[in-house]
Structure prediction request, 135 residues.
Amino acid sequence: MKRYAHLICWLALVLLHSALVADEGYYRKIVVGSYLTESDAHAALKRLDNELQSHPQIADLQQEHGFAFIARSSGAYYIVSVEPFHDRVVLQSVLDTLRLNHPDVFVNRIEPPAQASSVSSVSSVSSVSSVSSVS
Prediction:
């Protein structure tokens, strides 16, 4: 058994390292809805903000993990999304809460910040209790 102790330790380190490296490139967003006009997306963002008033745990997670609720253009449409997420557990918690009122929400990958294109016309919920515009 002593022979295998080094091998077991080595395998444990490799597995731990693999798990840590795998999450390093984890960038996801939750898409809450898509809209034909920018004003519709901003109205949906305000409704979402009102809905989340009854879920203070989301504000706590947002403060701790730095994701934002935004309305922005996406191709020919405008979307309301929550991004970026770097942690699967946090994403799942927010996703589960959003699905209570939005059963069609879905998760997409996003590019890491160094490769991401600039976002134009973004509105975000800086704290879940208020909507602010960022240019």
